[in-house]
C-alpha cells in the first residue's frame, strides 16, 4: 500500500532487556521469538510496509545481531534452496523486505528507556513525522492498527497514540491518557501519565505499542529527565508535547496481545495458529480433543 501523506519512516525500538521473558531472552532478542512461523519483528515490519512505510529504523542493543541477519540476504540458505528447487521456501526468505524499502540500524548503547531509544532515531528521522512500533504488542485485525492510524494522521496531521480499554487492576502497567473523546475512536488529549496507581489513573484507556509522532518530540526528549522505573519515558515526553500542540489518541479496531509476557505470547500463538491457513484446522481439532476441564 502507498500512503498519500508524508509518513514514510517507522522506528522499531528493539534494545530492551526482555526481563519478563527470561530465560528465553538471555542470549537472544525477545523480538526474534516466533509466533507460529515468523518472529515478532517480522510481523511488525510487515505491518509498517503494508502501511506505506519505506524507511525502517531499528534501535538495537546487545544480543540483537540476529535481527539484522533476519532482514539481510542469507546466501547459504538461498543457494541450498535453489539447488533443491524449494521455490516456496526461497520466496519466503527472499521477499521479507521489498526492494524499495530501506533498513537503518542504530545502536542504543545503554537501555535507558523507550524515550531514550526513540531519541536515538533522531539522526535518521530528522524533521519528519514517523511511526513507532513496539514489536511485542501484536494486534490481530482485518486492517492493521498502523494503517488505521495512518488514515487518521491524514486528517489530523498531529501525533496519534494507539490506546485500548484496560481493566482497572492493570492500569499501573500502562501509560494512561486523559482527554475528551470526540467521536467513536478519537480522543483529544489533555494529559498522559506513565504507570499511575490504579486508583489515580485519569481514565481506563491504556497506551499500546503504536505511535505516530511529530518530530517536535525529539527536542522534548532531549530535555526529558528519568521518570518511572528510572527510565527516560516516551510517555513523559508526550505529556510535554500535549502541552504544546494537539495530540490525539486512537482506539484501534483489533485484538491486542502483549507478547512481552509469557501468557500474552501463548495466547497470541494460539490465536495466530487458529488463523493460519495451513494450521487452522488441525490446531482447532487438537484443542477440541484436549478435553480441558
Ligand atoms: P519494555 O517495557 O517491554 O521493556 O519496552 P523490555 O526491556 O523490552 O522488556 P521487559 O519489561 O524487561 O520484560 C518496550 C519497548 O521498548 C524497547 C523494548 O525493546 C520494547 O520494544 N526498549 C525499551 C528499548 O528499545 N530501549 C530501552 O531502553 C527500553
Description:
- It is globular, with a radius of gyration of 19 Å.
- It has one domain: Spore Coat Polysaccharide Biosynthesis Protein SpsA, Chain A, CATH 3.90.550.
- Helix content is 33%, strand content 24%.
- It has helices at residues 40-50, 65-71, 75-83, 87-94, 114-119, 122-125, 145-156, 216-222, 234-244, 262-274, 280-288; strands at 9-13, 34-35, 38-39, 55-60, 102-107, 130-133, 137-140, 159-165, 175-181, 186-194, 205-213, 247-251, 255-258.
- α8 packs across α9 (234-244).
- β2 (34-35) and β3 (38-39) form a beta hairpin.
- The strands form three sheets. A nine-stranded mixed β-sheet has the order 5-4-1-6-11-8-12-10-9. A two-stranded antiparallel ribbon has the order 2-3.
- By secondary structure, it is α/β, with parallel strands linked by helices.
- The chain is built from eleven helices and 13 strands.
Q: What key attributes describe this structure?
A:
single chain, 293 residues, alpha/beta, Spore Coat Polysaccharide Biosynthesis Protein SpsA, Chain A, nine-stranded mixed beta sheet, two-stranded antiparallel sheet, 33% helix, binds uridine 5'-triphosphate
Brief summary of the model shown:
The chain is an alpha/beta fold and 293 residues long. 33% of the residues lie in helices and 24% in strands.
Amino acid at each position: 500500500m502507498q500512503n498519500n501523506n508524508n509518513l514514510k519512516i517507522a522506528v522499531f525500538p528493539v534494545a530492551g532487556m526482555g526481563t519478563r521473558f527470561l530465560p528465553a531472552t538471555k542470549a537472544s532478542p525477545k523480538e526474534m521469538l516466533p509466533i507460529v512461523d515468523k518472529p515478532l519483528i517480522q510481523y511488525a515490519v510487515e505491518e509498517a510496509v503494508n502501511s506505506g512505510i519505506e524507511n525502517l529504523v531499528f534501535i538495537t542493543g546487545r544480543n540483537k545481531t540476529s535481527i539484522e541477519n533476519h532482514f539481510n540476504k542469507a546466501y547459504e540458505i538461498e543457494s541450498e534452496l535453489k539447488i533443491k528447487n524449494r521455490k516456496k521456501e526461497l520466496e519466503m526468505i527472499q521477499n521479507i523486505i521489498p526492494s524499495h524499502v530501506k533498513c537503518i540500524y542504530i545502536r542504543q548503547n545503554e537501555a535507558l528507556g523507550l524515550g531514550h531509544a526513540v531519541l536515538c532515531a533522531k539522526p535518521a528521522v530528522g524533521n519528519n513525522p514517523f511511526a513507532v512500533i513496539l514489536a511485542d504488542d501484536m494486534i490481530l485485525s482485518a486492517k492493521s492498527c498502523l494503517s488505521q492510524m495512518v488514515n487518521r494522521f491524514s486528517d489530523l496531521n498531529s501525533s496519534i497514540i494507539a490506546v485500548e480499554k484496560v481493566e482497572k487492576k492493570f492500569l499501573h502497567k500502562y501509560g494512561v491518557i486523559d482527554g475528551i473523546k470526540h467521536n467513536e475512536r478519537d480522543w483529544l488529549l489533555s494529559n498522559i501519565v506513565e504507570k499511575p496507581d490504579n486508583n489515580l489513573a485519569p481514565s481506563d484507556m491504556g497506551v499500546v505499542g503504536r505511535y505516530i509522532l511529530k518530530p517536535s518530540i525529539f527536542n522534548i526528549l532531549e530535555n526529558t529527565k528519568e521518570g518511572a522505573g528510572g527510565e527516560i519515558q516516551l510517555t513523559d515526553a508526550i505529556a510535554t508535547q500535549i502541552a504544546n500542540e494537539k495530540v490525539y489518541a486512537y482506539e484501534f479496531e483489533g485484538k491486542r496481545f502483549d507478547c512481552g509476557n509469557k501468557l500474552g505470547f501463548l495466547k497470541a500463538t494460539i490465536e495466530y495458529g487458529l488463523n493460519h491457513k495451513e494450521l487452522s484446522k488441525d490446531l482447532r481439532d487438537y484443542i477440541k480433543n484436549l478435553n480441558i476441564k
